[in-house]
Amino acid sequence: MSEPDAPYAPEELIGLYQEMVRVREIEEAIAERYSEQEMRCPVHLSIGQEGTAVGACAALRPADQIVTSHRCHGHYLAKGGDLKSMLAEIYGKAAGCCGGRGGSMHLFDKAAGVLASVPIVGSYIPLGLGAALCFKQRGEDGVALVFLGDGALEEGVFHESANLASVLSLPVVFFVENNLYSVYTPLNQRQPGRPLSDIAKAYAMPSHEIEGNDVLSVFETTQTAVKRARAGDGPSFIVAATYRWREHCGPNYDNDLGYRSEKEFQSWKDRCPVRAFGGKLRAQGVLNDAVEEKIRDGITAEIEAAFAFAKGAPLPEETSAGDGVYA
User: Which band of pLDDT confidence, cut at 50, 70 and 90, is reported for residue 5?
Assistant: First the structure.
């Protein structure tokens, strides 16, 4: 991608759009097929949050490391994770990126720099610090990016990690996807009335509060933070406002539960990051019907091939049940 303040090439803009469409279509396909009862694990979909995953990961190099939580599909895919391995994992197959043992919430891809996704809220944050410390001790200019939700800010391990990252001036970026809810509890019932970005002041690190549905804003802000980390100037804190469309866990919609209003949901859906960016590119003459059709046809073919691979892959051998288990 372009350096800060440099103009974007049309292929860079199309690349960002294509990746957002790809993440959206893959998760929509998971939601559509989940009722077949062949994916025997929970799924936490990030539909509606594509701008944060794609924009942030576009600012990273392949060798940079990310860690993330239970809502990890978009991050894994945007960082370059292998789709066939991801779907095979969700189907519990031996070809999965965790051998079929972890399911949707345990995605890893060493080649792509996906260090870990871990479902226990906040527990993965120190893993990102470990990667950052490793880069620093080796004298490498790698960067670790930690994706976390607004709920993880209430875990003690975040504050311990933020403090240590600042004290040691580690090359790490804390990227908060603020989708307003920790499961069903809204932010205003969990946090005092101040911007989340103010949290960074306690740890003497720069903070940025941005529109997470604007993929270019996400990319540029993350790029600034990554450049600072790569130069040895320490951690940064980014809060990106975004919104998950579907239920907290599962393929359906859960507005009927009453924790959020239909009006609120619709207002965020109207701010769809994929549609907004596509409209901007059309207005600039970068995107047209022919390019759109080519993008979507390619993604559809990739998805169909990946699902066929995952469904046809063998289950783990029963004799391997004890592998990786330690007393």
Answer: low
